[in-house]
Design goal:
6 strands; 156 residues; 34% strand; Thiol Ester Dehydrase, Chain A; 4 helices; alpha+beta
Length: 156
């Protein structure tokens, strides 16, 4: 499944269902804006010559930039527009390969678990996510847990 604009509520989650986002080309300007936002101006992210001296073809994105981009690309699918309550966190984050300026990346994610919350009307959904570059290489793997609303039960 590619893109959707339908809200996914707890009851709609099918374990094993896989989704894919659109691609985004990461530019050196994107990386520079992330540097400014986070105050992390390490030369790997700002100086192409320095990055090349360390074996990279160009400046590389921060690992946390890639993780943030994973959430943004997933959000662009509009799965949880009206059903999202909160992010409960990220686990098992692994930076497998660098994201280099010019890379086109997309997210592939799969629903791996769900359970009702102790507090009624909501549930916890677990997603396995991968950020994948234009060569089909996984660059980041992570697990995300989200708190989502249950559908309203019609009143008779």
């Amino acid at each position: 499944m590619s893109a959707t604009t339908q809200d996914v509520y707890f009851e709609d989650v099918v374990i094993g269902m896989e989704l894919r986002s659109e691609s985004h080309v990461v530019s050196a300007a994107d990386i520079g804006r992330f540097c400014d936002l986070t105050r992390d101006h390490h030369p790997l992210h700002t100086d192409a010559d320095y990055a090349q001296s360390r074996g990279f073809p160009d400046v590389i994105a921060h690992g946390l930039f890639g993780l943030s981009l994973m959430e943004g690309l997933k959000t662009a699918l509009k799965l949880y527009e009206n059903s999202s309550i909160a992010s409960l966190g990220w686990d098992q984050v692994r930076f497998l390969r660098p994201v280099v300026a010019g890379d086109a990346v997309h997210v592939v994610f799969r629903f791996t678990d769900k359970r009702l919350s102790a507090r009624g009307g909501r549930g916890v959904v677990t997603e396995a996510l991968q950020l994948v570059n234009q060569r089909g290489e996984r660059v980041i793997d992570a697990v995300h847990m989200a708190l989502v609303a249950c559908r309203q039960t019609p009143v008779d």
